[in-house]
Amino acid sequence: MTTEPSQTPTGAPVDLERRKLFKLSAVAAGLAASGGAAAWVGNRIQGVPFEGGFPMPVDEAVLKPFAQRNWIFSQAASETMRRKHPERDRLFAEIAGAPGWTFNDGLFAASDYTRPPEQWQSDKPGYQQIDWALFCAASHPLDYLGKMAKFGQPNAPGICSWEQKNLAPHQWQFNSKQDAAVRIKRAAKLFGATRVGITYNDPRWNFEPMFDMFQDKEVSWEEYPFKPKTVIVMLHEMDYDGIRTSPAATSVGAVNKGYTDMAVTAGSLADFIRRLGYQAVASHNDSINKVAYGIMAGLGEGARNGALVAPGLGPRVRISAVLTDLDFVEYDKPRNFGIMEFCRHCKLCADRCPSDAITTDDEPSYAPTYKDADNPDIGWHGQKGVLKFYNDAKKCYKFWHDNNVACTNCIKACPWNKPDFWHHRLIDASNTFTKGPIHSFMREMDTLFGYGNMDVTKAHSLFWNKEV
Predict the structure, then answer these.
(1) Where are the beta strands (DSSP E) in 280-422?
(2) Rounded to an integer, what distance in angstroms lies between the CA atom of residue 355 and that of residue 386?
(3) Which of 107, 258, 379, 431 is 20 to 30 A away from residue 19, measured at CA?
């Protein structure tokens, strides 16, 4: 009688896995020996500071502040915008393959918390009643903390409002700019932030104008309660096991928990700063380009999938911010972690995107390269003029529509999205100087060990049955 070899999550025999692990360990050991062990790893994983403003090349002749009226949520929620741009409904209906379908109905169908019985009663792992319940409940606090904040509503009712409640009449005096930064970050961590960075207000990355979906009108920064001088940027880690269930509803439970954490933490920090006598507003998904500010604050780099990738967390984060008039504070510098260079060679997020929305271009560009990107009826998107990878959000959204819930495959697939094991951090640290062949090797190791391509059914079972 013969015995079949044990199988790993990806189906490869364990013996093969062990041989690959030995090779990977040899590479890691070589890096550790040549670099000086833990101190070297700790230094490298912090990235290399960048001097001289925004670290990604910018074409100033093209770059303009983003008009929030052209955002997907503004278009969906605004009757004015939909009357002004009916072609967008028509084009999205064609993409969705549903003539007569409206952009408004389609968008919120993928984000709605009232599900028809046939969806609640599904037997499909990841789409069962317990998964929809998780998806809805994780976002439930936002009904009270910041209505429509996750959809980009500026001045959202609740703790994300612009009201300067609890503003102290006397200002606390910090001992130094470094003292201010240390204490603000300590408070942010206490309130729930995973990581914190502080940078200056840069109008290039502010929505101008903003768009108020409740009042169906544009809002200028002249209407803001004060002139922001500083932006405190916070990362909120999403549950690793939850994200692995993507594209199931369970994974969006992890996303919605991140949205709730954003409101709680940013709202608490803004209140803390106001009680010190400085004006402050919590920013959720509104008002500013948080990926750009996260880069400026040294928290990560822009990536192929359009997200901020943070060392040790990858794109498995949500980003909140606090805008304040306090400027007596030490600013963080952008840092090079080797992430963009890695993205040039990896392409796993593009390979595993179910709608082919993520570009497979070999090099970044200053503008989108996908079909009809220059057609304003089709190609409205984020800011052009930054040397980066541009993706087609319409294709992404089409899958949301088909899937009946959002997707996080590009987060799940990213090799930077890893548990906090020593060998993962060692390889993260090496990225500040390793080149293409090593990146390709790391991509294959990620696939081999099944981190970013776990079967949804298995991931769903692991999530619900994991001992905690």
Answers:
(1) 280-283, 301-302, 308-309, 317-324, 335-336
(2) 24
(3) 431
Bridge partners, residue 235, by sequence: 195, 319
Is it the case that residue 426 has pLDDT exceeding 50? no
SS3 assignment, position 184: helix
Say if residue 57 is preceded by a cis peptide, omega within 30 of 0: no
Ramachandran angles phi, psi of 13, nearest 5°: -60, 150
Residue 4's identity, in one-letter code, is E
Chain centre to alpha carbon of residue 151: 14
**From CA 422, how far away is CA 66, in angstroms rounded?**
40
The model's pTM is: 0.86
Residue-wise pLDDT for 3-45, tens only, equals: 333 333 333 334 444 344 344 444 444 444 444 544 444 555 6
Strand (E) positions, 42-194?
48-49
In 345-355, which positions are buried (b, 16+ CB within 10 angstroms) versus exposed (e)? bbbbbbbbbbb
Tokens, residue 31:
């890096």
Q: How far is CA 380 from CA 69, 70, 194, 376, 390, in A?
A: 10, 7, 33, 6, 12
